[in-house]
Records
---
Amino acid sequence: MAKKAKKKKKAAKASNGKMSMKGRIFMIAFVLLGLAFLPTSMLLGVGMLPTVVVFFMGNRRNGVRASTVAAMNSAGCIPFILKLWAGENNFEASMNIIMDSQSMLVIYVAAAFGYMIDWVVTGLVSSYLYQKGMGRMMAIQKKQAFLVSHWGEGITGKSDKGDGG
Amino acid sequence: MSKSQSLPPEQIAFGKDLVIDTSRRLPQFDNGDALAYEAYSARNKLKKFVAIVSDIENIPRWTFAATYKSMNDVSFIHLVHSDAVFWPPEQKQKFVFAYDGDIGTALVAEGGFGETSWRHPDIVALFIEPMARMLMDMRDKGFCHGSIRPSNIFCFSGNNTRPVVLGDSLSVQAGSTQPALFLPPSKAMTDPMGRGLGSIKDDIYAFGVSLFLFLRKNDELSELGDEEVLRRKVEFGSYSTLIGKERIQASFLELLRGVLYDDETQRWGVEDIFAWLDGVRLTPLSLAQKKKANRPLIFNGKKYLFAELLAVDLYRNPDELVTLLENGAFDRWVRTSIDSDVMVGRYEKALERVSSLGDLSKNVGFLVFHITMALNPMLPVRYKGLCFTYDGFGALMAVAAYKEEDLGLFKEVLNLNILDHALISENMVQAMMLTVIKQYDSCRVYLTGKKLEQGVERCIYTLCPNMPCLSPKVRGSFVYHPKSVLLTFEALCKQGGQIAIMMDKHFVAFFAASDSSFMNSYLYDFNSTDKNEKISGNLHFMAALQKQSQIDALPAMAGVFLGALSGVYEAYKNTETRKSVQDAVAAAAQAGDLVAMSSLIDDSDALLRDQNGFRIATSEYRILQNEYNQYNKRLANKKTYGLTNGHDAAAVVSWLVSTTITVIVVLAFISGNRIF
């Protein structure tokens, strides 16, 4: 009970918009790392914009879709990060990649591909699950009809006729 | 069957090998309305029997047949067979007692009081001794003959070595066919069917009167009517009335005085008669003296000096009795003219009971009954035209029910506790009296009860155990034991139009009265409001009777039940089990086996298995229904169903593709091949 209460308190705090201590430390570490690797951070910041957009688009439950897009988006960023790291790895080199329309097109097409994966796979899976559910409903009805044929309407609880036992 | 088919129409097969010839009457063996016919053995036509045929309204005493057969004395007419039989002349069943026909001729023709050729010593050897032995036998077996009179005593004329034979008694209620002369005054004035079950004391009295008729030399009594003889018996006592001026040998007078004594408690018993036969001189009984009033009471135009005699006539003018009570004349006569504290005590109690109903004129019948009992407690109950003894009420009511008369008066007698008051005047052992009072209490409860085994029907069979079932369904049949019930219903079912609910109020009451413990287990079903329970109850009961009666097949009854069991099978929930039970019941019905049908529809093990299966199936159905409802709810919106799972799957696919691409890019980069 005490644990549940604590969890509730935490959830309440999160809903108030205040960050926890762990989150704060994580954020500070993230900012410091970003500053330490500024050229890479810049490239990722601009390259991963589609993921950020998907994350904030629609409702908060789009986290999974953002993850899908992020996976492909990051795959698009990897070659250019490696290129940056293999070169001078400074602010100017990072800006050159960012300003290169071909590079950004590759990164954003990869992100779009991620979005496409989400759309196609989700459609396929939900359709499959729907059909499976319908099939189960049919099987239940069949089984119930079998039971009624063997034991009469009484087992449905709708008729008093056969429920005399 | 073949035997009866080969007989001429006027002859009826009876029992195993008897044939009754309805065209050959034997009036000398008649017992009242129970008429005698000649019967013969189918094996030997020379062997003759007497078949005494009795209708329901005579209430033949079939319950005593076994007791009668157990009598050892040869002077009892030998009972060969008794049963109900279809009587073609009247197109209904009657009850027949077949006796051995070799019994000689009646001592005296019915209604005549002729003399016999016996001399005095012969009377002792040929009449008194065998009668004493028979009386002892009857006393020991608890049986009352109730028809001892010269016209029912037979002898072989010219053969003084064979003792007399006592004729039929079972075909009628005890004492119901006795002329008033042969009955003590307390019973002589009752309705013939209201004389009660009878007792050995009544038989001793009848023996005494019969003996007197053999001994007398003059016939003074035939000049007097029954009523006058009765009045004299009440006024002077039976002994004095009968003997009168007759000159009879002194030793016989002692016997007659003892056996004709009006007070039952002091009347000689069987032991006293044997003591007399042995020559023992018993203390002579003094004749009871009635208290004479010092002035007469004028009632109904007559002067009365004896309260006992007035009691006999009170019912003749009840309105005058009310007037005499209201103006105080009756009260003064009882209190001052008759010097009897006991009678005044009874009179005061009677007034107390009558006043409980309010105004004297409100129920004159109740008033007459109580005042009569107060003045002469020996008299039978008189109530609004009915006259009966405490144990004769049942037979009287049963006959009224058979004749489809209104039973309101009988219900009134029960509800007003009249029988209980009448019982108090009887000299009965307390334990016995309590049993009888308990029976009356039960009857009052039955009258108000609404259940099938209650009602006035139950009172009839409780108070008159010899009455066969009076159900309108079996009108014209003599239904008196399980076998006759089954055979009657089988015949009715063969005719068609019968329904499976065979047990009506009469049948249930009849069996409940005769064997309540056997009946109790079926009463729940009989009283059920559910038609199927009633039908199955009827089948179970009839099956029990079939088993008890050992009747092999009752196909017509089984067919009627089979047609009505469709609802009963629903006790089995499983359709396969139900079908198999139905098939098995149909096969049993074809064989006429009600017992098998009954056990099949009510197989407790199978029913338990079926009910358990039904419970499991019901639970399974509910679980499936819940699952169905959940699917139905979730699948209601096709667009959103499975999206979460879809997104998750997409994420997995995307990360797999991403990882693959990343690995390829990294490997290409390490190997020095640049993609971009």
Note: Residues 160-165 of chain A have pLDDT under 50 and may be disordered.
---
Amino acid sequence: MIGASMLLWTIVVYMAMRKLYARFYFPLLVPIATSTVVIIITLSLFHLSYEQYMDGGKWLVHLLGPAVVALALPLYQHRHTLKQFLWPLLCSTFFGTIIGMGSGLLLARLFHLPEQVVRSIIPKSVTSPVAMDIAALIGGIPTLAAVYVMVAGIFGAMFGPTIFQRLRLTTALGIGSGLGAASHGIGTAKALEMGKKEAAISSVAMTLSAIFASLLCPLLLLL
Amino acid sequence: MGITIIQIGVLYTLYVVGSFIQQLLHIPIPGSMIGMLFLFLLLMSGIVKEEWISRGANMLLSHLTLLFIPATVGVMDYVELFSGKGIWSIFVVIVSTMIVMLFVGFIGQWAQTREQKRVREVKGA
């Protein structure tokens, strides 16, 4: 019963927040952020735990797998663009992954964060299942890593487009690869709002980042 | 509507296949991504036609944000991170995210403008 109402509530909140965003189009109002906040507030008002929420929420999570598979469609539709820019994409995401993990590590050390937190921050730019695996491998806390992945995702969806606009980063390749490499699936969902081509590039950047991060993480163990 | 649901079922099957391959071979890449690459290859080789999955795929993709909400709500168990000393870890994540976004974004932009210039020159000559 709680499960079904949680599922319904999530959909209702999402629909309402989408309407709100379409009406005001203000970065702080991106549906992923506002829906999350509204749901967390209602859960605490009714003294419901995350576990109870997931009774309903898990049905949406079940659809996330096939949704990622579905990204093959924009990938296929824009295969010519991707082929044309394969090398720049490979290079930028490879170094982007190194910079992402490296800057996270250095900054976290600079702020004297606890070692386990440092190691949970490192994989923040890659999609959560991969990030959680990496965190476990390098001595971080997987659930904490997932939280940082969400922060990276929401931040990218919230401010990415505005920052790009300010800095005149306007090409589909720039926007798509930046969002995918830094903010994984949530960034790709945002890229989809901006265009199918952006989304195709974003999903490639996100996939490549996940692959590179998994390959590079054994090296991080040496640090 | 029926067709859309059947097509989502096809995508789900591919996801299950991807997860199975992942567990079988112990690849450190999620099953969903293996499923995506698999579907991409099926589309490229013409074994699967675009129309067979396009309705279901577009349905899922247009509400991708909704599907991420349960995961982001998980932050509620870590609210203490957003106050006190924990806030620095959030700050670190945000700064590092911005660095990656701009680095990768500008290389992408540079590659695209260079390519467009090259195409224009070829056409001009």
Note: Chain A touches chain B through 106 residues (CB under 8 Å).
---
Amino acid sequence: MIVELGHFALILALVAALVQGTVPLIGAQRGYAALIAVARPAAFLQLALVALSFAALTWAYVVSDFSVANVALNSHTDKPMLYKISGVWGNHEGSILLWILILALFGAGVAAFGRNLPAAFRARVLAIQALIAVGFLAFSLFTSNPFARLDPAPLNGNGLNPLLQDPGLAFHPPMLYLGYVGFSIAFSFAIAALIEGRVDPAWARWVRPWTLAAWSFLTAGIALGSWWAYYELGWGGWWFWDPVENASFMPWLAGTALLHSAIVVEKRDTLKSWTILLAILTFSLSLLGTFLVRSGVLTSVHSFASDPARGVFILGFLILVVGGSLALYAVRAPSMKPTGMFSPVSRETSLILNNLVLAVAAFVILFGTLYPLLAKEAGYQVSVAAPFFNIVFPALMALLIPFMGLGPLLAWKRGNLRESLRRLRPALVLAVIAGLAVAFATKGPFWASIGVAYGVWITMSVLTELAGRIGLFRSPGQALRRAAGLPRGAWGMTIAHLGIAVMIFGIAVSSAWQREEITVIEPGDSVRVGGYRFVLDAVGPVRGPNYAAIRGTFSVYKDDRFVVRLYPETRRFADPPQETTEAAIDPLFTGDLYAVIGHAQSDGRWGVRLYHKPLVSWIWAGALIMVLGGLVSLSDRRLRVGAPRAAKVPAGVPAE
Amino acid sequence: MIYALFALLVVVAALILAVPMLRRRVPSEDRSAHDVSIYRAQLAELAAERDAGAIGMAEAEAARIEVERRLLRAADRAVPAPRAQLSSAGSMGAAIAVAGFVAVAAALIYQAQGNPGLPDRPAVREADVPAEEATPDELAVRMAAAMRARPNELRGWIMQGQLATSVGRYDLAVEAYEGAARLEPGKVEHWLSLGLARVARDAGMVNPDARDAFGKALVLDPKNPMAGYYLGLAAFQDHDDRAAFDRWTALAAEMPPDAEYAGLLERGLRRAAHRMGLPSPEFAASPSTPGPDAAQVEAAQDMSEGDRGAMIEGMVQRLAHRLKQNPDDLDGWLRLGKAYAVLGRKGDAIGAYEQAQRIDPANAAAKEALAALKGG
């Protein structure tokens, strides 16, 4: 009964979304306040219904109700509880339901926290949000119903891919989806603005917190995914440029560009048409990413014969959303006239450069991801692999990074290039010295020196900008007070840019000076890897809740001083039969020690892979710092300005 | 019950959607007030930026003029636009339309998709399902019926085989593994499962159809120990002791030292040797693993022998029980008779064969067996 109740709630959610997607829109168009008023309660209703439905499916997983086909296919009574629950979204049907839940969550968020938005505008936003939900609910119910039943129910389920039985992956998709789906709000804001025919600084300010939230979640989601690949796949890599990763990275690049271009709209009431386009493109890339990751636009294209409904629906939905919004854009964009001016040397210009490079980067990745897939459809084999991205992407970033340091020091409207460069001279000198020192002292590859120089450049220029803002050298006594008085948005930028610097250090140093040994040893042997000595103490079997494993015990020494003991495992799952490697990692501030135990050789020795990866954890630390920057910026009180009441107390607006 | 809950959900949803339309006094709201507050905030920020030097003096002045121009435009629009109000009949109509749409559309879609009569089946609670609701036996019968309707689902047959075996319905298990072996004849496991199910159905006797299944398994995997063991057992039950002994000896020679079936094989060999009047064969424990001492071996053997006896006893009892309910099963009585004969329960065996004769007085097998039992 609970299962059927969940099914019914999902159907009711579809019907309610149809109402929410039409009635407020008509109301806003005709000016009927009574119809506009439907939007907010409808958004809450939507969340309640979808949450009920999601809870019912989760319940079916928790109690292993194999009369639900989805549970029977993807769960098993022997599975640990955590993975029974994560199994809810570890499959196509459930992940679409999670998508819908998060969509409803954001809709309800706008209804709850969007009090500063004009009612008609908010009604339009919520209606667009509901129309997206209609598409996904229909997709779920009519092609991928998570509540399809089996009668009689099988006695046990088909288990779950043991690769997916991992805490990192249990939380990775929800985080990623929070980012993907979060950009639906930016999209709804853009479409609502196009329908209204008004894009102005107020709009840019309203859309900012939602874009920031989505961007922060997406950053965290991508970092989690990369971290998961790093320690679960057992090859020590953390980014593979595979289509699934690219699918999450494209909306991130577009979203980052959107975040920056919206600032220009807010400050100068210009770049409006481009910003709207970015909002549309970001969400379109998110949609593409969703379907690539979970359903696979391409696998569904491949499986047209077996399940044509799904593939046709996805393609149709993508065409409708992307094509429809771009058509609306084409009609409305010419009416968006810029009203502000700025000179070619200004912070605005540097933000436009940022947008240009990020957009090109997103396009390059889109091309590199889709081209081989489309070529394969057309019948010939093209491989656009990591080497392509590893050359093109850093080259693009190499263009971007100098402006990342310079931009924040340029004044709005008209900057003084000479003055800004003079202030940046110490940063520049330090960066060059650091780069040269690395090049001569370590004989690393040239790009490692450039990477280190860029990291120093960003760090120093961000600190220079911060020091200037708080007047560290002008009036040191006041600096602390000024620092506390800085708007949170400014702090957010500083923190996020520092996060990039930390990440660049991690990428450059770990890629250039990683040491690896792939060898065959027996217990008692030791292997030297990058200044560390790994001793294989023992290898033995261990039992897990639903797997059997071979566990190796390594002691690691540096200069005969004991550092850590590592326990890598190779796990063998029974149902379905599959093997996973569990790398043992000791994340040190200066670098990770990484050990993988492989297969037994016929002579009783063991294949092992051992790595020393200097500064590699800085990559994820950098991402976390960026997320922190996003959250700090999100807490800026100015983002909540706009409600008419606030206008009466301008004193409540913090001075910058 | 479930429809009451559905109705409740529909009513709540319809009310939430329709009631806002019926509210008479909706506060009219002025869009430009929002804009004005944003631009005022921007002016304050601009002043702060100018003081901090983040924008030049002249530019700040120009920006201030830009923002103020926007502020004025927003204020100009501030004349509240006359809000259209729906007439009371109109809003009532809209509310009813929305509520009706919600109820009808949800009902139609659910009717097409839902299974209102299908209860939840949480696996963790299966153990305490009351017996009258669905005994495991009934479950197996129901699933068998379902599987016959879609005989090409390999996984279904395998699950049914496991289910039927676990509840002791070996006849259904045989049917299930026959299905699996038909769909995937190249897989050794199906033939082994089928052979085992046939042996279990026949209360431990390796009859020709079981022999056939193990033979097929052996064709696919000539070294398969389980198939080899049961073919040996078949020979043993046919009193072809030499064939059984040879087969088992060959198997024992290739047996890994820690094989699970070692005990079974050892016992078989002892019995075959005993019947042939040979000395009991020696089983040297492999030198690498120190074997248990003699007393332990003896104890373990006794225990597993007892277990095995109990198991066969149980199978025979189930067969006898089923025949009591279904006394016209000729094959069943013959099988039971044979099983009793093997167990040495002569009187019971005669009784079973007599039952078989009652059903088919001309049955040659029953006649022959009775003659042998009474004569011997």
Note: Residues 135-281 of chain B form a domain with the Serine Threonine Protein Phosphatase 5, Tetratricopeptide repeat fold (CATH 1.25.40.10).
